[in-house]
Amino acid sequence: MSTKTPKVYDQVIEQIKNKIKNGELKKGDRLPSEREMSESLGVSRASVREALRALEVIGLVESRQGAGNYIRTNFDNSLFEPLSVMFMLQESSIEEMHDLRETLELQCARLSAKNIENNELELLTAILDRMYMAENEEESLELDIKFHYLIAKTSRNVLLINVLEVISQLMDEFIKKSRMQILHRGNTRENLLEIHENLVRALKCRDEAKAYRAMEEHFGLIRKAYGYEK
Amino acid sequence: MSTKTPKVYDQVIEQIKNKIKNGELKKGDRLPSEREMSESLGVSRASVREALRALEVIGLVESRQGAGNYIRTNFDNSLFEPLSVMFMLQESSIEEMHDLRETLELQCARLSAKNIENNELELLTAILDRMYMAENEEESLELDIKFHYLIAKTSRNVLLINVLEVISQLMDEFIKKSRMQILHRGNTRENLLEIHENLVRALKCRDEAKAYRAMEEHFGLIRKAYGYEK
């Protein structure tokens, strides 16, 4: 086992992190100039630049030509890259990913029942209607993703949403679309539509337990289709 | 909203990431030399060095004096740093963190009931015994953390464990110990011990539903103690 030896640039990163922690730096804020940081920490400007570049690489900081360095306002998942690479290095199985995703989506269903707003319910119903009319598997799949994304969003828990996004992206890379499409054929397709219908109904009644159970049914079907039942 | 403009070093990072994805590079492996990477991608060695430095900063790569660059074998949470910084930037509420933590721990309890081994059950029982005898709040707290960590570990889902670790660390930074200690006093302490006892019993019976419910009770108590009941 190797442990990381602290480097000079770590001090710079630590300082920026602390300023974020104590609220001194927020999204979109300008960082102190390289000169200021180098003076306040007593480190070389090269070390400051190294740290800034690394923060830029992971998508936390952006440098604007001639205007200095800023905390990014949107993260485009760039910060998740390291996490998803680590997931890959740990050779996590698709079952492990699936378990985590299920855990998070069940909770999303519950929270959504509590927090979804009327216009969002309308949007969800519209997506469901289009799912019934979808003419090919591509379209079904796309609508399905939208449906689940909207439920996640209406959970109103940004942390949950973010972690779910990482794991979903990761799974999409592993699961070939063809496997997902199993779900959008024949019998399974009908069952799936029914389950989505139940889910919408539960959300409309603001019934957390019912929403949770509908999502549970949904994942039961997925497990069955993928052949790794609990 | 700003989007990240691709830079030359991004190509280098992309290449390394792809090699991890397709299994060519694993934990502990040596990376191609700077010269090789620079030649194979047709980019300057400075760009290669920039990318490597960034990967070193986030703790994915370590450079060994005179021996080249390696994929790290243990991550010491270093890869989680960016994630936890992002959580902070999003100004997630303690309730949001709590919700996510609860979601994950409930699933851990369920999976642990399925996967825990006998020697781990013995260890868990020993921790519980020591919790009963703990003489101060510091000790209670420490044992409590060990107890939950062991249950998480025995879920055998590394993804779940990792995400739970990030969120736990983050919460520890936010929740002052004093608040956690509410739980280790008087009545609440007794209730908590009883719940932990129930949890161990459920795990011993390999009863997933019972383990889940015991953990649910546990979080109900925490919510009550913290004053943010559902």
From TrEMBL, chains A, B:
One of its GO terms (molecular function) is DNA-binding transcription factor activity. InterPro entries: GntR_C, TF_FadR/GntR_C, Tscrpt_reg_HTH_GntR, WH-like_DNA-bd_sf, WH_DNA-bd_sf. Pfam families: FCD, GntR. Residues 6-74 form the HTH gntR-type domain. PROSITE patterns: HTH_GNTR (PS50949). Keywords: DNA-binding, Transcription, Transcription regulation. This is FadR family transcriptional regulator.
